[in-house]
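Morning!

As promised:
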Amino acid sequence: MRRERLGRSWRCTAPEGRAADGGDGAPAPLALYRTVANANRLTALCETAEAGGLAPGLGLAEAKARFPGLEVLEADPAADRRLLEAVADWCDRYTPLVALDPPHGLVLDISGCAHLFGGERGLLDDLLARLFHQGFAASAAIAGHAGTALALAAHRPGLMVGAGAEIAAIGDLPVAALRLEPELAATLLRLGLTTLGALLALPRAALARRFGADLLLRLDRAAGRADRPIGPRRPVPLLIAERRLFEPVSRTEDVEAILLALAERLRGDLERRGEGARRLELSLFRVDGQVARLTVGTSEPQRDPRRIQSLFRERLAAVGDELDAGFGYDLVKLTVLQAEGLADRQEDLSRPDADDRTVGTLLDRLGARLGEASVLRLSPVASHWPERAQDLAPAVAGPAAAASGEDERLWLFTAPRPLRLLADPEPVEAVAEVPEGPPIRFRWRRALHGVRRSEGPERIEPEWWRASGAAARDYFRVEDEEGRRYWLFREGFYGRGEVEPAWYLHGFFA
Amino acid sequence: MSMSRHSAAGPMPEDRAAGPAGRVTRLAALRAAVARIEGEPVHRLEEPGAAASGRRVAQMQPLGVPEADRALAGGFPTRGLTELHVEETRGGGTGVGFALALAVLLADSRPALWIGETRAFREAGLPYLPGLAGFGLDPSRLVLVRARRLADAAWAGEEAARSRALSLIVLEVRGNPALLSLDGTRRLHVRACEAGVPLLLLRQHGQPQATAAPLRLRIRPGPAATVPDLADQAKLLGHPVFDVAVEKARDGRLQRFRLEWNPHERRFQALDRREPHAGAVPHPALHRPGAARAAGALLALHRA
């Protein structure tokens, strides 16, 4: 909020005055409030407000009375969450395993990643420096267990704890490091248990009996005696290739060139695994922390860099102007999200252009440009209800041209079906000669059609095993004076029930 | 100007080396140049080299009905662009039926592609698999492209026309968009010719307009044929009938013919030909009691 107004490196405690850009000197102290139990209470404070003696939990009216110049805004947890997720996106540059720890924390699993940034210390410094330049006040700690690191991050920032040293490291942390319920924390303080060391010294059974199992679990996690699972936000990729750029790039051609180099690197890995990629993701990390992600699917396992590049070229062209390069990307990452076995194949010297003879290539290109949901295959469904008798599935990501089973060919034994079916039957005004008979004329889309010939009725009952609430339909094939052939149906019966029967047009015959 | 053009088109040494086929190509290019100067539409001319190499026969798919094949000068072209017009969207089933009948005739191991706009599909209905199967088409050989915008559909059409992996492409549009006027159709035609793939531009309620397609047909529905064995039941609907008007052709003759599609035998047939059905007379049931005899007196009552 204030970041938007005063720029992203806004700090309450900035030493210099802001006369140059804002003109109103030091900004007013800021507080956020939320309605808790019908009372507006402060939830977060800036440094100036805190120094003035305000504390979270105070009533809004009282705070305003004490500081008339206080600027108050309502807290927006959803925006906080979005910001945290954006930061988590950005943290993907360090490790693919990033988990949220709401409301303000992130857990990064950096096993096997630290050496890429000059060791754990180097990674920690790099992360904090970059976050600082983006205007975040962050603190971090590294430990063998996520629970230990979370307990340390707030109270001993910058600490790195090796395996086995957890208990010693957390011994003198305050109880608040466990982030207990406020009542429980207050009880512990009243009893004189101020540090984790004091808690650890007590017998476990008594602790659990007195304060519940949750406290023990949190304590064990902080002490490294129990594992805190890390739930990654995004699917963990099978393979990653990335390139860090000293000089940010912004032109699409440059991105494509880098992409080709990354795909070359992935090809070696895929060949060793005997696999080809079915789904790939390209992540573009903008200098200012935004991350753009593009995904393409392939209809068959693929590892040829040129084809991967051409698929992403279509995707980039489809995204077009929506992709804002800003000041450029400084990290490009290509990941394989899904792969399948791909047998090596002998290339044919006599047919070098065999590549564009395969349907898969074409469908992949179409799917990459238009979206996978736009390229469809029809597959039969064993149902007699007209709307349900077919299924449209993406041709790209789905199984490659599944053979239709014999038992699903119900329609071969039914009356003729139309070539085109309206997704929703359209109501028509129809006049029938006899109550249950075919229509003699009908009005559809404001045009009157006289029926010359007709066949029917074919009664189709809804599927009783589904609670669809649909009524039985009597279908008629009719031909109008011009020779156009339609599929009409009547829902309901004359003289039975209180609802008048209604006529609908549902499909078109050749 | 004529001098310079003549010198540019004069015989070259490599031309002689290429033999008669090269000379024919050269001649066709010259004819095209002359036609361009005289303002004649170039696409009315023969394909270069087609007549000499005898490929012309292979580029036509006979429809199997003499009248139609005469009107189309040998059959339906199996490469390049063809326009099919339907007068109204509500008659859209007819145009699609004709296009799909061609897809059945031209089917091989490669799939057919049907490209359309999302909104057009919503207005005129989505392809319906049971109906397609009953029409004679193998639905697993059909891929559907549902483009959000017309530009996307046109792009997909060009992209598909470049590929050799398809047996037939149907590009369905509404009306006469500027994107698919003379320029757009020319691009489609050239690409489809190069790849040797038939491309049908199906226009719903399309107006006659300048097009690069060598052949333009207007498809109207005809009254359906009677059911062969129940010819006395005039109310029943038999095989679909297409009333095809040739609006533009290479030889410039305007023709009109009628075709009936037989979905069971997967072929077109002439309207008047009626073969008696071989299995028309059912055998008497062996293990069942015979049909119940009519009891009582028969009254001569007519149907209402």
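The longest helix of chain B spans residues 20-38.

Hope this helps with the figure draft.
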